[in-house]
Amino acid sequence: MKIAIVCYPTFGGSGVVATELGIALANRGHEVHFVTYRQPVRLELLGNNIHFHEVHVPEYPLFKYQPYELALSSKLVDTIKLHGIELLHVHYAIPHAYAGYMAKKMLEEEQIHVPMVTTLHGTDITLVGKHPFYKPAVTFSINQSDVVTSVSQNLKERTLEIFDIKNDIEVVPNFIDKTKYSEAFTDCQRALMANDDEKIITHISNFRKVKRIPDIIRVFDKVQKEIPAKLVMVGDGPEKEGAEELCERLGIADRVIFLGNSNEIDRILCFSDLFLLPSESESFGLAALEAMINEVPVISSNTGGIPEVNRQGITGYLSNIGDIDDMAKNALKILSDEKTLRTFKDNAKKVALTFDILKVLPLYEEIYKRAYEKR
Ligand code: GMT
Fold first, then answer.
1. Could you read off the pLDDT of 239-283 as tens digits, one per residue?
2. ipTM rounded to 2 decimals
3. Which one of 87, 178, 254, 299 is least enclosed by Cβ atoms within 10 Å?
4. Which of 21, 284, 355, 360 has most ligand 1 atoms within 8 Å of CB, for mutation?
5. Ligand 1 center to residue 209 CA distance, Å?
């Protein structure tokens, strides 16, 4: 099929999922067109089957807010017509489903019918989308989508609680591509980060409030009082500066490494012993899944869709939001004994493999086929 994918091109989970999905679809012979304001971060190669169309929003002094939705919907109309696109898959409802709906309507004027699949990712529902400023538009665009998917059962339930949804919501979980994690990749370069006797704990995110960054620092502080350890913080966002200050105040700045945004997540996870994800809310926790496929157990909060990924006592532990004592205790339980750590590492990979893209891709293909047939 000829598929247009709309997503955020940044380091956020929804953009990563959209990009990896697009690459996998192209590898299966589909023609994939990404439409967004910048080349997605994980889209390194534009091959024969993969195209990228940049949305430009010209600055005009009259506008206090530049109208991205308008530019996106116009770009979609042009791209769909020019390339004979058969289906539109938008990731993250705001404003993508809204812009997609406008594009659909404009195309219908010319007797072109393109179905729209909307995938809900999390904060588009649980944080931003439910705000009264956005809620009517989000409800409308979800209801106008031909098929709606959510990345976890929990997100589906939350969506039905928050919005008046008339559509069915199909759960299609996030995934990993196991071919990228070949056994041959053993060059972990652990020595770059820590001494042999130190355990390496990692966190990766966009450093927003919802990630509860101070909890990470405080859990690590407790752990490093008991065993030699380093904390590797990957990503960037509004909470980063405060986190650096907190490390200074706790006197652990020399044991915490802030790496900023990285395209080498797998290399970092390769030398990690434990992953921390104490988020306030998390629809799925793709970062946890990426840790797990790299044999890194997860200490997380017990919230949203995380329990669908991180299994209590098997791949890691889940605690109540903000219970840093319990998180530190569980981290030490895993890290203090090599045999226990090995078991958790093996389990993490085993469970992560159940989210193989080869299982998830056919679900999307079936949805596309169904949406196309009912257009
Ligand atoms: O806050 C983030 O982690 C970014 C956000 C996004 O949409 O880019 O992530 C959401 O979508 C991911 C991919 O489906 C999920 O794995 C994350 O759990 C979800 N984040 C939240 O719900 C906070």
1. 999 999 999 999 999 999 999 999 889 889 999 999 999 999 999
2. 0.94
3. 254
4. 284
5. 13
Q: Which domain, by its residues, includes 202?
A: 179-353
List 2's β-bridge partners, or say none. Answer: 31
Give the CATH number, domain containing residue 79. 3.40.50.2000
pLDDT at 264: 87
Note the pTM of the prediction, 2 decimals: 0.93
Do residue 121 and residue 235 come from a single domain? Answer: no
Beta-bridge partner residues of 116: 88
- Find the Cα–Cα–Cα–Cα dihedral 367, 373, 374, 375, rounded to 10°: 100
Beginning with the edge strand found earlier in the chain, give each strand of the sheet holding 316-319 in spatial order: 256-260, 229-234, 199-204, 274-277, 298-301, 316-319
What is the DSSP code (8-state) at residue 56?
P
Atom of ligand 1 nearest to the CA of 208: 1
* Same domain as 70, residue 10: yes
Contacts of 120 (CB under 8 A, 6+ apart): 92, 93, 142, 148, 149, 150, 151, 155, 159, 169, 283
Distance (Å, whole) CA 203 – CA 276: 5
